[in-house]
# Entry
Amino acid sequence: MNETTVTLVGNVATNVEYRETVSGGVARFRFAVTARRWDRERATWTDGATSFYTVSAWRSLGANLAASVSVGEPLVVHGRLKVREEELDGRRKTFVDVDAVAVGHDLTRGTAAFRRASRTPVTTTPLPEGLTPDSSGMAAAGAAASAAASGERSAAGPGGAPTSASDPWATPPPPAPSTEPEAADYPLVASP
# Structure
């Protein structure tokens, strides 16, 4: 575990580029960090030199970053520092990259509104023949939802832990089955 971790405070300098790769999605952007120092002679803060970093964020962090960040926004970036040297046009150049672990807006300079991202896509599986939504346990789920809404403890939540309406981390039960007829229940009528 000989990695150098850093926390940078600065501004997004380029558009966030997001692309899918074999090992998952990745978002990349340039990040500008400008040093600030107190000038005693003028009794004011002045800008120092600006350092630029290439920030990479993988998988869900990268997808959320691409959907949330635009040029000029102030961020706090925490991640692993990587310094590499390459030869371009006969000259050795040094590049400083940060593999982000966490990224957030710098709230000392503004406000932000957080929206929780869904962790997994919702998929539906067809019921086996002969089963209706009520016989597959949906009625029990509806009863659990009613019990949770009334403040009673339901049977078990994720991982076997009991859940209640007062638990903000509890996963809500699936919705009760609809009594509306499906589109397939309506006969097809040819228009004249």
Remarks:
- Strands lie at 5-12, 17-21, 24-39, 44-58, 74-88, 91-105.
